What does this fold into?
Amino acid sequence: MMAHHCDNPIPLVVAAIDFGTTYSGYAYSLRDDFNKDPLKILINQKWGNDKTTCAYKAPTSILFDRDRKFQSFGFSAESDYTDLIDNGEEEGWRFFRRFKMSLYREIKSERGGRPVRRLGRDLNLEDEQGQRMPAMDIFSAAIRHLKDQLMNALMNAFMGLNPNDVRWVLTVPAIWSDAAKQFMREAAKQAGIDGKQLTLALEPEAAAIYCKENAVKAETEIGKSKDLSAFSPGEQFLLLDLGGGTVDITCHSVNRDRTLKEIESSSGGPWGGTVVDDAFFSFLKELVGRDVWKDLKENNRTEILEVENSFDMKKRDVKKDKHYMIKVGSAFIESYNKLNECDLAKQTLSESKCSSLVEVKRDKLKINGTQMIEFFQGPMNNIVQHLERLFMKPSMRRVTTILMVGGFSESDIMLKKIESSFPGKNVIRPIDASLAVLKGAVIFGHSPQAISERTSPRTYGISVSVPYIAKVHPEKTFHICDGNKMSTDVFHVMVKIGQQVVMGKTKVEYVCRPARAYDKVSTVEVYESTEENPGYTFDPGCQKLGELRVSMPDISKGKERRIRITMHFGFTELKVTAREEGTNNEAEVTFDCLR
Ligand SMILES: Nc1ncnc2c1ncn2[C@@H]1O[C@H](COP(=O)(O)OP(=O)(O)OP(=O)(O)O)[C@@H](O)[C@H]1O
Ligand SMILES: [Mg+2]
It folds into this structure.
């Protein structure tokens, strides 16, 4: 576990990277500008591989050469790789896209009761050609590229900027495991971002901050805002971040000073926009059969990539009574015909269950709107079911507003589904919904105190020894210590999971004594648990976070020395100190508490 300082000076520049499943981008703002207008945020618009494209985000695609050296990122990576294939030179090059979800999948196995496999630094990812590369290298090369571009932009914008004055913010889904978040932190470190200058921001939390800031501005500038009522003190709202990979949900209530207080732990699942793409591809696979599909995947990779990109665009404006031409390429039609010894265009499509919904026009598939909407059903139903369950909780009774952000929320089908499923709620989709996370991350970097309270995501405590009682304590905890019968490894709970903690304020203390009268160093082990009341530090769900060692060389008072242990919740970190009372002997360690 990496330690870093808690009390960061106010940053001169905040530079945020939104590392998405499908698209990534960056944005920044200067402290002076932020003080005048928090929404004065600069976003790179120069993504795109030709002069005509103007995009705020680039596809999260990355290309490495035969020596595994970074080649390109974003639109360039996609066109470089396509060129390589067209020239028959792709062998040995490594191309990865949409790889962020691999960190979520790893944790899923960790969650199903017992850990099946822990996400480690040694995780490998496989590219389309079946070539493996360490995930850490892929993630860090992508972050490094974004960081270098961002640094260039900063250097151009603010002459003479000292790189140490930059606060870096990297976004992570709230529902990721600690291991996945730690993985991103390490990838950022490997990309050259100093841990001391880095803050992780939870994606839905950042988006919530952005929406609030937007509404407040509308109020001050126009005098009123339709959305502001959701941010009046005492109001409660749910933020639904519909991304490409995951759906992340947080619930906040608004404090009198308009800071936000979390009222329910974040939740969500793998129901983002790419699930719609997956449904479409399963449909194609079924249409042409497994063999043709395999053949296509192996021999027509550029076409498949094109189909993916073209579908991603077509699905953005889906209406029931329209139809959609999706160019699948001649290879698709030809290989179907070749392997099935028939003509897809002429075949009586009634044989296939998709018949009335699809037609073939030269190298295109004509799909009707009803079928297009069908591809949305899976993720839509999962999201609605999850929200229904969430709204049943007592803590959620007063939540009246649903804020929808993220690229997938731009879908009108999605918006209508949420509106019709929750008629009693006020559903709001801000104008630049797909940039809310990115812009919010910049605001969060300037003012992490915008989130005032969180529900503790874990139980935190320390390992202590207590006098041994045979009937109470398990035998394996029995130890003789300094002549006394003790039970060791007892989990002393300091903060419980789900408990409200005030960021920057909540302090929990515990006083203990050294284990032995002659100890010149006392070691305090800090633990976390997913259980509310863990008994012992070796119980399932418990994990050691780290330890502190206080040196207390004066042993004249023996066991009468008192050690005061304090857990202090910072805005993004948990700081633990141990101090020998009446002396200056102290030790300190900090952990990420943005879990
Ligand atoms: N108008 C639209 N209709 C339907 N889907 C859309 C629309 N606009 C964008 N999307 C989808 O939204 C997704 C991208 O959203 P976003 O950029 O928020 O995700 P991300 O940040 O890449 O992913 P994540 O946050 O899960 O890591 C893509 O799957 C894209 O196809
Ligand atoms: Mg996102």
Notes: The chain has 13 helices and 30 strands.
